[in-house]
């Protein structure tokens, strides 16, 4: 049996590389298979199995194989990588190309610009991998005004704009006409946008914006959208319409952004009120965690009534539209959570609140 060391010398491949192929960590290219076959002293057909190479093929596949055989080694390797990535990029669970950040810029000299940052190289595509890839990606951006009239744009790669490290992941969108402050505009990005690693965006993206802020992003992606969009209530342990709520309940609220940071803490303490359906005000404690906490608790606020609530009574918790996130975005409109307490006056053991005499 031929040792790995001997096979390495005969094939010209490193031992570590051969180990990675044997373990399945590395997929060999066609040229690598040729070298392995040469080192083993057998034909490529014997290495792969003659039956694999002799399976009947359709005329189209036979023509493709014939064209592949005419390619130089480096192009065969590139094609091999492309086909492997193409098949995996559509597989369930594989990570496609994604939009990672959007930056709006306004300056007296350059006017309005939008930087769109992707997860991989989209603006400096290697020609031998995807011919004319960068230009084809540029054709995937379109800008419209509120009446869906297309606005001419200049698209600049991050590398040409000298945007520094990872500039190849960035496209800069620059309208050729002046945009009007306060009006809505829509940028669309084609799902056919392709990265240098052959991954596609897979979904059409739409960014609704003004010259000052991003209003909406479709499809919604929590990680991408949270820094830009209005503050939102994401979760509550009590929802509108809930009944039989313990009279000593506390309401735990989770928002889409940091709501306890020092910059907004004082404002947010005054953004909650609780009253009964008879308009009786309930005194509450608004409980926030440590503003320096880096966990998701910085998105949480607990509302704790200072006394037990009345049994079988409807209550309304109102969250003010002025509640503010650490990204300076507001809730935007009042939010109400309406619930009814337990008709027997049942309480939950170990929870806060003092009984009403």
Structure description:
Keywords: DNA-binding, Signal. One of its GO terms (molecular function) is DNA binding. This protein has three domains: 70 residues, no CATH class; 127 residues, Immunoglobulin-like; 109 residues, Immunoglobulin-like (Sandwich). The protein contains ten helices and 18 strands. Strand 3 and strand 4 form a beta hairpin. It has 357 residues and is of the alpha+beta class. A five-stranded antiparallel beta sheet has the order 4-3-7-8-9, with no helix packed on it. A five-stranded mixed beta sheet has the order 11-18-17-13-14, with no helix packed on it. A four-stranded antiparallel beta sheet has the order 1-2-6-5, with no helix packed on it.
Give the topology, please.
Blueprint: H1 4-11, H2 15-22, H3 30-40, H4 44-48, H5 50-53, H6 59-69, H7 73-89, E1 99-107, E2 111-118, H8 133-138, E3 141-144, E4 150-151, E5 153-157, E6 170-175, E7 185-189, E8 205-209, E9 214-218, H9 222-225, E10 233-236, E11 242-245, E12 251-255, H10 262-269, E13 272-276, E14 281-282, E15 284-288, E16 300-305, E17 314-319, E18 335-341
Helix pairs in contact: 1-3
Pfam families: Big_5, HTH_3
GO molecular function: DNA binding
Domain HTH cro/C1-type: 7-47
List keywords for this structure.
disordered C terminus, alpha+beta, 3 domains, Immunoglobulin-like, 23% helix, 357 residues
């Amino acid at each position: 049996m031929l040792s790995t060391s001997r096979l390495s010398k005969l094939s010209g491949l490193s031992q570590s590389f051969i180990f990675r192929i044997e373990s399945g960590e590395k997929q060999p290219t066609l040229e690598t298979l040729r070298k392995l076959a040469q080192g083993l002293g057998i034909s490529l057909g014997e290495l792969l199995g003659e039956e694999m190479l002799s399976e009947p093929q359709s005329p189209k596949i036979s023509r493709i194989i014939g064209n592949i055989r005419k390619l130089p080694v480096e192009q065969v390797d590139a094609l091999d990588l492309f086909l492997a990535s193409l098949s995996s990029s559509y597989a369930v669970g594989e990570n496609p190309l994604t939009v990672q950040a959007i930056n709006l810029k306004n300056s007296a000299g350059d006017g309005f610009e939008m930087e769109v940052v992707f997860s991989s190289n989209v603006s400096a595509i290697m020609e031998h991998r995807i011919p004319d890839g960068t230009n084809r990606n540029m054709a995937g951006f379109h800008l419209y005004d509120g009446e869906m009239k297309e606005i001419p744009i200049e698209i600049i790669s991050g590398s040409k704009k000298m945007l520094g490290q990872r500039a190849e992941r960035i496209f800069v969108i620059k309208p050729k006409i002046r945009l009007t402050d306060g009006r809505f505009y829509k940028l669309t990005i084609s799902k056919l946008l392709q990265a240098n690693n052959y991954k596609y965006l897979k979904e059409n993206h739409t960014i609704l914006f003004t010259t000052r802020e991003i209003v909406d992003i479709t499809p919604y992606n929590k990680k991408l959208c949270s820094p830009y969009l209005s503050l939102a209530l994401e979760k509550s342990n009590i929802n509108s319409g809930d009944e039989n709520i313990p009279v000593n309940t506390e309401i735990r609220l989770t928002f889409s952004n940091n709501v306890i940071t020092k910059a907004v803490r004082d404002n947010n303490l005054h953004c909650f009120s609780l009253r009964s359906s008879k308009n009786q005000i309930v005194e509450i404690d608004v409980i926030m965690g440590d503003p320096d906490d880096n966990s998701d608790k910085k998105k949480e606020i607990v509302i704790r009534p200072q006394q037990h609530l009345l049994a079988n009574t409807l209550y309304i918790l109102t969250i003010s539209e002025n509640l503010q996130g650490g990204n300076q975005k507001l809730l935007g409109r009042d939010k109400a959570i309406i619930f009814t307490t337990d008709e027997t006056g049942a309480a939950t053991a170990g929870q806060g609140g003092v009984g009403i005499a």
